[in-house]
Amino acid sequence: MNIDPQDLARLVAEFGKAYTRWIWSEMGRAGTTPARARLMAVLQCDGPCKMNELSTVLSVTPRNVTKLVDGLEAEGLAKRTPHPSDRRATLVSLTDRGVLASKESALADNAAAVWLYQQLSAGDRQLMARLLRKLLEVLGTACPGEGGGSCSGDPSGAASGPPD
Fold first, then answer.
1. Which residues, other chains included, contact 105 with Cβ-Cβ below 8 Å and sequence gap of 6+?
2. Which residues is 79 bridged to in the sheet?
3. Architecture of domain 5-119
4. From residue 90, how far is each of 46, 52, 54, 60, 94 by CA, in Å?
């Protein structure tokens, strides 16, 4: 069966949407949401952050960060403390319970992904890994130093074309 690149692009997009819905559902079963999990992961990896830094890193509005932090704080998963050198700023950090919840969320997410890939045969997993590595290599050379993707800013990549 020969599949053209347009059909493959649609299939990958369909898989991406289905996977996202499924993994978000799995996160819900684990007791969190993707937004909360991302916020806790940032705090766990980066340590205490100012609210505006969180807004930038998460690419959400400051109002959204405030709501997320309010919820985590109400559950005892995060805390606000005054910034040591900037009286106008507040630092947000995870509590011990928050660190544990963040780790549990990451483990649940990983376990769900592992389960999904276990549904493939060993040969299919090997093939998928080979294809993904090849595509990552192509993306890495398409726009060196920028993490791949289109150098032109055009998400279709039409203006940049394939690397020479």
1. 27, 30, 31, 32, 36, 37, 40, 41
2. 93
3. Orthogonal Bundle (1.10)
4. 15, 9, 11, 18, 13
Local structure of residue 147 (DSSP, 8 states): T
Q: Can you tell me the distance from the alpha carbon of 83 to that of 90, in angstroms, rounded to the nearest whole number?
A: 5
Beta strand residue intervals within 14-159, DSSP E? 49-50, 78-82, 90-94
**Distance set, CA 25 to CA 32, 72, 77, 109, 133 (Å):** 10, 19, 21, 10, 28
What pLDDT digit, counting tens, does each position of 81-140 carry?
Answer: 999 999 899 999 999 999 999 998 888 889 999 999 999 999 999 999 999 999 999 998
Residue boundaries of the structural domains of the chain: 5-119, 121-164
